[in-house]
Design goal:
Length: about 220
């Protein structure tokens, strides 16, 4: 049974999220809070497998909570609830250690998949958020591609490089496989090899590096 805590300053949103989450027999909502300070209190008082939290809240927001929690050994994976247009905040939250991002308008099934994914230690980002994140990465003027990253990218085979570039488009394995005319299982293996060669810990970080590479190649042309 996965224990989940909900943090959102709107009670109606929490009620809806609780209903969706507890429709899954493997999930139990063990605590709720309406602000960042409440989120910190939940983590101190409860064992939580996933902290599902609004990114934007009055006072201490979701990013502030994550920054306070990241040095704690008992910090649960944080799944942020966000909306369109929050690319810069999502980028900052990812750098601070967020495990996943889901749009408040995503389907109930998408939310449940994300909760299970981050509980299992995976990064989980809904496709619209990932595309927003890529645009934010490309827009950052301080976003440079260092020699170590370039060396790792150069170590990729031609096919691995094609997969690496597609990661930056925020596509699923199925969509990438269709573009490169291979099976989804083969694509999954390629993605794993690419991430290992790049020495990044998850798909989202690989996608960010791909966005950095795209901008660096464009600016160097």
């Amino acid at each position: 049974m996965l224990s989940v805590a909900l943090v959102d300053d709107e009670e109606l949103v929490r009620v809806g999220l609780r209903s969706i989450l507890e429709s899954d027999p493997e999930i139990k909502v063990v605590a709720e809070a309406d602000d960042g300070r409440g989120a910190l209190d939940i983590v101190r008082r409860h064992h939580v497998d996933v902290l599902a939290m609004d990114l934007n809240m009055p006072g201490l927001d979701g990013l502030g909570v994550l920054k306070e929690l990241r040095h704690s050994p008992d910090t649960p994976p944080v799944l942020f609830l966000t909306s369109f247009g929050a690319g810069g905040q999502v980028y900052d939250a990812l750098e601070a250690g967020a495990s996943g991002f889901v749009l408040k308008g995503d389907s109930p099934g998408e939310l449940l998949r994300h909760v299970h994914a981050v509980a299992d230690g995976h990064a989980a980002v809904s496709s619209p958020v990932l595309r927003c994140l890529m645009r934010s990465a490309l827009a950052r003027r301080d976003d440079t591609l260092g020699p170590t990253a370039r060396s790792r990218i150069e170590s990729l085979s031609n096919r691995e490089h094609e997969v690496f570039v597609l990661l930056g488009d925020g596509l699923s394995n199925a969509d990438m496989a269709q573009q490169l005319l291979m099976s989804e299982g083969t694509m999954k293996s390629y993605v794993s090899r690419v991430l290992a060669k790049l020495k990044v810990s998850n798909r989202t970080q690989g996608a960010l590096l791909s966005a950095q590479f795209t901008r660096w190649r464009r600016d160097s042309a």
